[in-house]
Design goal:
Blueprint lengths: L5 E8 L4 H15 L3 E8 L7 E3 L3 H18 L23 H5 L2 E4 L9 H8 L5 E5 L37 H15 L2 E5 L2 H9 L8 E3 L27 E9 L7 H14 L1 H6 E8 L13 E3 L6 H10 L2 E4 L8 H8 L3 E5 L15 E3 L4 H13 L4 H12 L1 H23 L1
Parallel strand pairs: 1-2, 1-4, 2-3, 4-5, 5-6, 6-7, 8-9, 8-11, 9-10, 11-12, 12-13
Length: 426
């Protein structure tokens, strides 16, 4: 009897942060498909027996402070950009971890902030096992930053970095780490996975990854758990369900990258120019706010729910909605758009990121002109009136992002890499 494929998924956490959540989903999807998949993490928050915390709390604190302290010191003792960059100067040596040693394939995910150093990655890649590294942001293709925004330094060799002290000078921290990454990538066999075609295109432009092997596989989503019609109305939200709902959510709504100001401006445009929409529609926002006055200028009927911790309640909210919007300036693969569409909401979004993998413009959603509130307003108007069947919206994301579909694509990649490794060793 053939032994099941064994995969060790290495992640900073099992539940903390979007990358950890989708990695945990992938582990469960792989297990359901017959793979012996397990997670090795820096911080464990749940009680899943197939997730192990790889070090003690004291060692975790030491490694975390080693990286953050180094960034803090080299950035002129400023906390301003402390968590916008990572340098992978310290981390665990997972090469001897039992689950890693037993694995046929090691699948790296988001492993920053003390989880793995570049040296630790090198040792894993030299172990003789295929190493697959899933990229959840831009960090692998830049010197130090997780999102480059308008900077194109990653096309050359970084330097002059907007996030580091003395970034006016070419040989700054970002360039020094760029050189270390180049040395790692050129000396070790790593197969990279981009979670969207947009991210893969950036890899092709990157001086670090343009000659590396990159496969596009999206994040896994529990699409089948999203109903397209509500089983119940969530009364405690205090929403008028007789109106058409326009939904927007984020972990932190007023994080500048989420573009909340564009959403507010677009709704104000509708309030001023389309009173019929304003009278018959209602905007619903969920997520934390740092600035509690963020919605003070919004003239469109709305309610801010704060953080919604119950996934079942959130799925019911989507199922009552008509439109889901995202005005994020950059999104590797926007989960709220996929989740809303899975529940039958028509998505409206800017297109700077993985949105084009989700939305076929004017077919199952609307991709607005970048940084144009008027275009978002036009998209909302179209979405409210397009009459797309909710089940078709659900199926359009199920065929691409459902957990079983994504797991199968990873299994095919793992088996191909193992076969190639066997062939090369003959």
């Amino acid at each position: 009897m053939n032994q099941p494929l064994k995969v060790a998924l290495v992640s900073h956490s099992d539940r903390l942060g979007g990358a950890s959540v989708v990695t945990y989903r992938l582990m469960n999807a792989l297990r359901k498909a017959g793979v012996d998949a397990r997670m090795v993490v820096f911080v464990k928050t749940g009680d899943d027996p197939y997730v192990v915390e790889a070090c003690s709390r004291n060692l975790r604190a030491k490694l975390f402070l080693s990286e953050c302290g180094s960034i803090f010191a080299q950035n002129g003792f400023s906390k301003r950009n402390l968590f916008k960059i990572s340098i992978a100067n310290s981390g665990l040596q997972l090469i001897d971890h039992p689950w890693v040693k037993e694995a046929d394939v090691v699948a790296l995910n988001w492993v920053n902030q003390g989880m793995l150093s570049l040296k630790g990655v090198y040792l894993l890649a030299q172990s003789g096992k295929p190493v697959v590294w899933t990229m959840h942001d831009m960090w692998n293709l830049t010197g130090v930053c997780h999102h480059a925004h308008e900077c194109e330094g990653y096309k050359d060799k970084c330097g002059h970095c907007q996030y580091v002290w003395r970034g006016l000078f070419g040989n700054d921290l970002s360039r020094r780490v760029w050189h270390k990454k180049r040395e790692l990538y050129e000396s070790t066999p790593i197969h990279f996975v981009a979670v969207s075609n947009w991210l893969a295109q950036l890899c092709e432009q990157s001086s670090l990854l343009k000659n590396q092997s990159v496969t596009v596989i999206p994040n896994a989503f529990p699409i089948d758990f999203y109903p397209v019609s509500p089983a119940l109305k969530v009364d405690e939200f205090g929403i008028d369900y007789n109106k058409r709902l326009i939904i927007m959510g984020a972990a932190r709504l007023d994080d500048p990258i989420k573009g909340l100001d564009y959403a507010i401006e677009s709704l104000n445009i509708l309030a001023d120019t389309r009173p019929d929409i304003a009278e018959n529609s209602f905007a619903v926002f969920f997520g934390d706010l740092k600035n509690q006055s963020a919605f003070d200028g919004l003239r469109f009927p709305y309610k801010h729910l704060g953080r919604v911790n119950d996934p079942k309640m959130l799925r019911q909210l989507y199922a009552t909605g008509n439109v889901v919007i995202s005005t994020s300036l950059y999104e590797t693969l926007p989960g709220t758009i996929i989740e809303g569409q899975a529940a039958g909401c028509v998505p409206v979004s800017f297109g700077r990121g993985g949105q084009a993998d989700i939305i076929d413009h004017l077919e199952n959603g609307y991709i607005a002109e970048y940084k144009s509130a008027q275009s978002i307003a036009d998209g909302i108007s179209w979405a409210l009136e397009c009459g797309i069947d909710r089940k078709l919206l659900h199926e359009s994301v199920r065929s691409r992002f459902a957990s079983d579909v994504v797991a199968q694509r990873y299994i095919e990649l793992f088996n191909r890499l193992l076969s190639e490794r066997k062939q090369s060793s003959k």
